[in-house]
Specification:
The complex is a heterodimer of chains A (371) and B (257).
Chain A lengths: L1 H10 L2 H15 L4 H10 L7 H19 L2 H7 L5 H29 L5 H6 L2 E3 H26 L24 H6 L5 H22 L15 H24 L27 H9 L8 H4 L1 H20 L3 H35 L6 E2 L4 E2 L1
Antiparallel strand pairs in A: 2-3
Chain B lengths: L1 H5 L2 H6 L10 H9 L10 E3 L5 H4 L2 H20 L9 H10 L6 H25 L8 H23 L4 H14 L16 E2 L2 E2 L7 H6 L6 H32 L8
Antiparallel strand pairs in B: 2-3
Helix pairs in contact in B: 5-7, 7-8, 8-9, 8-11
Classes of the chains: A mainly alpha (371), B mainly alpha (257).
Chain lengths: 371, 257
């Protein structure tokens, strides 16, 4: 049993967990026809059947029940403010299954020329009173009852009175911002805390203008909107919820990583050997001192950024995203690709950190400008 | 007895449909039309719109949870004083001195719940492609509501004035100090200077504006209290009105055409 826990602790490290999830992600949620056919061949779409749903439930529930027997696991998961996140985790898995279950069903119906299930239902009209009003009433009563039970059984957390001279370790933001706080590991605050939230807001508002696919409006489908759904789930599940879960459950004192069954040892030491790209190029590869001129020192970083945001969109437009470019046109494509590259820069920065210990691509601490 | 009451002038003055039992199609329609609260809804809707598996109920629940939060929040305001001397003690008294001291629990868990239901509502709206024309604008209003929900939750997080509160807000507000150009620790702020005189420093930057001080103290508590109880609810209600109105104007709930 202890060995099993050790293995889970090992796998849960973001380096391994994130890489593994990323490796299987686009097979489970295939964005292109080619990946879609592989998904069918591997039978991964069977996750979105009734059997698959039971499988998902048993695995997640089993893991939690097993985990609760462990003291360290119990301590983190049952912390009052963490309870809603556990609820969120189960809800998201269930609702993900629910919408893809209906999407699979609808895709089958559409392939047979029958139109989605919702269209079948929509032929019939019902009156708001009583058909909708009563459903609303029942929903309100159930939710009120649930929150009342929740409020009675779980006291709202209250720690000692505020003391500006004693900072808790770790100091954590409210859980819904922990994705952003987790990004602080890989980016400076001006990117993780200011630029990315702004880009997320603008990016979300831009969705209806970027996604010009007229299909799939008002019913569940996967096949008709593969690319859109795949990218959205990538952002929502992997870059938002995964980071929140990691930040909440797996980050202990000094923001060090702790496995789900690991004791939060305040003295855990992690080797920090991070270096900047400029140091790597000049000091390690060329064995020279860093140049005094900031622009010469950072030119490789600027070149990398220039290629990433300048050249890469052009290359992608001619290759992987040729179809996307054709349907979006130059302006929409530019907005889309810049937003996407900004989002993808997070996993890239993660892998640069894990693989090469790179801290900053461009490091100009003179002006607090570190990228 | 009840039937008799329904025939009185008093009852009929309140409910325009009068006391007759609601049996016919026309009467059912009138129930919705003659009620200011119910007439947010259309009278007739397609059947897929009442199915939980389609809507997940998340939008409606977000609104309901918001109402619960408003009511419990008003009750909490009777007992809470937003000053450093009293805030923490008042929060303890809410549990110890107030009969059935459950209001803060209900408020806090519903606050978490609202963040969750708003996220899941957005998830559902995306998965059904409901942001597609003609609903683009309402999706954008929804994004604003999402941000306001998180800001409401964030500002409320400070009010208990315990260790959890001030350090969470410290972590959050430090980010504002890193805003490019206008944050003291942000890139470019040191460029906004004449000679040795910096325009952007820790007593003039974005973080200072947010906290009303250099650190999370008296100024921040009052500022967050006003934002949480008055300013943000006021703004979110305006956006909610637009959101609900646009649902109707954009053709009601999304569905296959």
């Amino acid at each position: 049993m202890e060995n099993f826990k050790e293995i889970i602790n090992f796998i849960a490290a973001p380096q391994i967990m994130f890489t593994a999830l990323l490796a299987v992600f686009f097979f489970i949620f295939p964005p292109t026809d080619w990946l879609y056919s592989i998904n069918r061949k591997l039978g991964l779409h069977k996750l979105w059947t009734k059997g698959g749903g039971i499988f998902l439930l048993v695995v997640t529930l089993g893991f939690f029940i097993f985990g609760l027997t462990d003291e360290n696991f119990r301590l983190i998961v049952t912390k009052a403010d963490n309870v809603p996140i556990v609820g969120l985790l189960f809800l998201v898995i269930f609702l993900l299954w629910l919408c893809l279950f209906q999407a699979e069903n609808n895709d089958k119906r559409i392939a047979e020329g029958k139109g989605p299930m919702e269209a079948e239902d929509a032929k019939e009209k019902v009156l708001v009173w009583p058909d909708l009003v009563y459903i609303e009433l029942i929903a309100l009563v159930i939710v009120s009852a649930l929150t009342l039970i929740w409020a009675i059984s779980l006291p709202a957390p209250l720690e000692g009175p505020a003391n500006p001279t004693v900072s808790p370790n770790p100091s954590k933001a409210p859980w819904y911002f922990l994705g952003l706080q987790e990004m602080l590991v890989y980016f400076d605050p001006w990117i993780a805390g200011v630029l990315f939230p702004t880009v997320i807001i603008i990016g979300f508002m831009a969705i209806p203008f970027i996604d010009n696919n007229p299909k799939g409006s008002g019913y569940y489908t996967f096949k008709e909107r593969k690319m859109a759904i795949s990218i959205f789930l990538f952002l929502w599940l992997l870059l938002w919820l995964f980071l929140i879960m990691t930040g909440t459950f797996l980050r202990g004192p000094n923001w060090n990583f702790f496995g789900p069954f690991e004791y939060w040892d305040i003295h855990k030491v992690e080797v920090l050997t991070n270096i900047n790209l400029s140091e790597l190029v000049y000091m390690i590869w060329q064995n020279k001192a860093l140049p005094d001129n900031i622009f010469i020192r950072e030119m490789y970083g600027f070149a990398a950024l220039g290629i990433y945001f300048g050249l890469l969109p052009l290359i992608l437009a001619k290759t992987v995203f040729r179809k996307v470019y054709d349907s979006l046109g130059p302006f929409r494509y530019s907005v889309f690709i810049v937003l996407l590259l900004l989002a993808v820069s997070l996993p890239i920065k993660m892998f640069l950190r894990w693989g090469f210990n790179i801290k900053y691509i461009v490091a100009i601490p003179e002006f607090f400008l570190n990228i | 007895m009840l039937e008799k009451f329904k025939q009185t002038q008093f009852y009929r003055a309140i409910f325009r449909t009068g006391g007759a039992p609601i049996a016919t199609h026309k009467q059912r329609i009138l129930v919705t039309l003659n009620n200011v609260f119910l007439h947010l809804h259309p009278v007739r809707i397609p059947k897929h719109a009442v199915k939980i598996k389609y809507t997940w109920c998340m939008g409606g629940l977000s609104f309901f949870v918001f109402l619960v939060l408003t009511v419990t929040g008003i009750l909490l305001m009777f007992y809470y004083r937003p000053t450093i001397e009293y805030a923490y003690g008042d929060v303890i008294d809410m549990k110890e001195q107030v009969p059935l001291g459950l209001m803060r629990e209900i408020h806090r868990w519903n606050a978490h719940l609202m963040v969750i239901t708003v996220w899941l509502h957005m998830f559902r709206v995306f998965m059904t492609g409901s942001y597609k024309p003609p609903r683009e604008f309402n999706w954008m209003v929804g994004v604003v509501l999402l941000i306001l929900t998180m800001l409401l939750s964030f500002t409320g997080y400070l009010l208990p004035w315990d260790q959890l509160a001030i350090w969470a807000i410290t972590v959050g507000s430090n980010m504002a100090g890193a805003t490019p150009m206008v944050g003291a620790a942000g890139p470019g702020s040191s460029l906004l200077a004449i000679g040795d005189v910096n325009f952007v420093h820790s007593a003039s930057d974005a973080r200072f504006v947010m906290l009303g001080g250099r650190f999370v103290g008296e100024g921040a508590l009052l500022r967050f209290y006003v934002l949480h109880c008055i300013a943000l609810p006021f703004v979110i209600m305006i956006f909610m009105i637009v959101h609900f109105w646009r649902i109707r104007k954009d053709g009601g709930i999304s569905g296959p055409t």
